[in-house]
Amino acid sequence: MSYNQLKILPNEIGQLKNLQDLYLSNNQLKTLPNEIGQLKNLQLLNLSNNQLTTLPNEIGQLKNLQSLYLSKNQLATLPQEIGQLKKLLTLYLSKNQLTTLPNEIGQLKKLLTLYLSNNQLTTLPNEIGQLQNLQFLDLINNQLTTLPNETGQLQNLRELDLGNNQLTTLPNEIGQLKNLQDLDLSDNQLKTLPNEIGKLKNLQWLYLSNNQLKTLPNEIGQLKNLVLLNLSNNQLTTIPKKIGQLQNLQTLHLHDNQFTIFPKEIRQLKNLQRLYLNNNQLSSQEKERIRKLLPKCKIYFEYE
Questions:
Q1: Residue 302: DSSP 8-state
Q2: Which residues pair with 113 in a beta bridge?
Q3: What is the β-pairing status of strands 274-276 and 251-253?
Q4: Residue 3 and which of 77, 215, 253, 302 are 20 to 30 A apart at CA?
Q5: Cα(295)–Cα(243) distance, rounded to whole angstroms?
Q6: pLDDT tens digit string along 120-153?
Q7: CA distance 105 to 108
């Protein structure tokens, strides 16, 4: 029933006792009948791109629900009963108007994927750390200023997207995310990084562009599996010598900083293919020195 112009669902929808998949995306629904909770066998419910402002508490009665799509609505809150969806694996809530999440979100023990981008979240409940099976967490384009320490308990997390928030610091517990492969912290207000960042041994992609970083911890050199590091548009004047330990690094973005000189240890970056140094304060002599240190690397000193 997707891509119609449905404005209401009849209460009789609850009589479809054997229904497993219900597609209602791209309609004009503003509310759902309480009877939606009677669909005990429902495994997938797609309500994306409607005009929903609230969900009935009865949503928590969908005990077999595995996938719930609620992106592109007008939800400002979620009912506590959302935590009763014990079999839920995937939850899409992007592009709503959420300012908070209920503590009960932490009861979704089987959840693998949680999309919360493009909302108005200012904080996360500590209970977020109880999502022990979570692998993907998207929080891009919210208003987060801090992360709870409990974020470090997400031991199975592989991708954490926090771009375009208002983060000023990171908890030391971020270093406990042993399985993290992709971390996006771009477009925040970070001035420092915790030394514990170096404990992310499986990290491959680290995005830190458009922050207020002036220095980097030496522990950055412990990220042995890092393939891409983006530090563009910060206030960096130096880079630690330990950068040379990033033996798998292929792409390094350092443009739009305040570099005047580089450590000779960058020549140890044997796999580096692209180095972006546009819009720094490098002299002609220093540029030539960098070229000699990295003869096989494509280096960008000017915007092309």
A1: S
A2: 90, 136
A3: parallel
A4: 77
A5: 17
A6: 999 999 999 999 999 999 999 999 999 999 999 9
A7: 6
Alpha-carbon span 177 to 199, nearest angstrom: 8
Is 198 in contact with 225 (CB distance < 8 Å)?
A: no
The answer for residues whose C-beta is within 8 angstroms of residue 70's C-beta and 6 or more apart is: 47, 48, 52, 55, 91, 92, 93, 96
- The H-or-E segment that residue 289 falls in is helix 284-293
Strand ranges, E, within 42-175: 44-46, 67-69, 90-92, 113-115, 136-138, 159-161
Element (H, E) at 228: strand 228-230
Is the confidence at residue 4, as pLDDT, over 80?
A: no
Q: Report the greatest alpha carbon distance in the chain.
A: 78
In order of their start, the domains of the chain are 11-300 (3.80.10.10)
Q: And the tokens for 249?
A: 């690094």
Q: How many CA atoms lie within 13 A of 72 on its CB side?
A: 10
Q: Tokens 């692998």 identify what position? A: 135
Tokens of 110: 């089987």
Query: Which of 93, 88, 98 minimizes the C-alpha distance to 47?
Result: 93
pTM reported for the whole predicted model: 0.94
Q: Which run of H or E residues covers position 251?
A: strand 251-253
Partners of 276 in beta bridges: 253, 300
Report yes or no: 303 and 278 within 8 Å, Cβ to Cβ.
Answer: yes
